[in-house]
Amino acid sequence: MQWDVTVSVRLAIPPIGSTTTYLYGIEYDDAARGKHEGVYEGKQLFEPRQKGKGAGAFLLSPKDLRRGSTFAEALSERYGVDIPGSPRVVKPAEGEKAVVGEKGITLGSTGIVVQAPGIEEVQKRLGKLGRLQSIGLEGYNVCKLGGNDETKAFLRENLTSLTTLDVSNNLLTFWSDVADIVSCIPSLRKIVLNNSRIERLTRRPHDLGKEAEIREALRNIREMEICNSYLSWSDVMVIAPFLLHLQRLDLVDNAPLSTLEPMRSDHGVPVLLELRYLNLSGCAIADWAALMGSLIPLKKLETLDVSNTPLQYIPPPPPSHATVNLPHLILLSSPILDWTSIDALHQWTGENLTSLKFSLSPPSKSEHDAPADDAGPARRLSGDQAADRSILIAKLPALEMLNSSPVKSAERRDAEMGYINMVDRLVAAGKGKKEDWARYDELKRIHGVDSAPAQVVDLKKSHLRSRLYGTFELATTISVLPASPMALLRKKIHRALKLDASQQVGIWTVSDKFDEGVRGMAVEVPDGETVGWWFGDGDEIIAQI
Prior knowledge:
By secondary structure, this protein is of the alpha/beta class. Helices cover 24% and strands 18% of the residues. Keywords: Leucine-rich repeat, Repeat.
């Protein structure tokens, strides 16, 4: 029953003169199908909601417009149940009572038995309807409740267990229509309205005078999804005062939503005070500082999802900022590439951030404008989740869960020690200053690490070169997993060089190749960390014996 094209009627011009057809100004949900911006012969006849996208068009044939299904019709078709108020239901004459029996339906005083093949199956379906906790009518093009008072009474009596309703891909126009449906489902707690084009409440006379009914119908809703519905935050703020107990709000892929200001209704009343989960994935959120400032009134907010947004950089907070109480943050497919943004994230959230889901968007979509620094590529996330995980743990001290995997105390210690060694190595190689790396001094104090700088050796001026075993031209390839301890690498070097087990081997990183084939700068690698902290695939090392 799903139709290929959905539109919103923005204008209806009645027949003029001898014409008998209406002229409709429509807006396609899919803007690519449109023709213009509602302009005819230089005059703006209507204004599409999707401004600047050319989503408008004119239509002369009313037969091409279909209103959609009522909720009662869609429910009847989906579950095979006859609902009062539907044309399919045969009602007894006035004063008669229909009695359902084994052979059919007996009409009260007449005693006439009407054959009803499959009546037992219908009764079973009615019973099943009363047990349903979730109903999905997505794609049925629901446009309103439909029926009459008898329809409403039937729905209230039979939808007693229903807590979740999905009417995505609907043709609902007014919030009062949404409220009519919800009012017939007393136990409803979650409603899904994805791919809607519901009008802003204050713009349409259809909703005027119905505020009390809308508030009463929506007051018990705990979760609402209204994704890809072309909503701005001001649109959300208009309906928010009616969602008194809303705990979760999913606003995924609403293109006009770029800011959360203001966080109050049109009358200045604080809203969404019970909100715990806010999903802004796929919206146009790009300003982290403005976002954090807007979230301050949401004292109960626990989870924020800003995945797949153009949020490229997290700046440090202002000196007098209040720490944001945000235990759970989701940043999947993120264009954030610089570790300074993660440092700033810690400054914004302090010890409150305990759970993080984080991944980078594909490189082709990661144009990054954060300031560069002397450390070059070392200051950027690698995109390798295993490698970045340890640094994320070291930089965010309160993390207990990272990408749905618990952060155990042993992993935290290894990550923090590895972070210290990584910074020492970079500083020793002349790639930045230790002051550039957040938590470096703090972690050294926590773990009691000697503050002496890493040893840097110029091979050309030292005796190490004279003690090298072999040359790079004769080097042996060793395979070892990144997660392996350095002790395992030492054993493999012993075997490769056929050394005595008691003979000591020093392992050095190398850089700045000399003409002779020996690299010029070296930093000794200590034990206690994994191979992956120091070496990548194809790296060369010096073994000192």
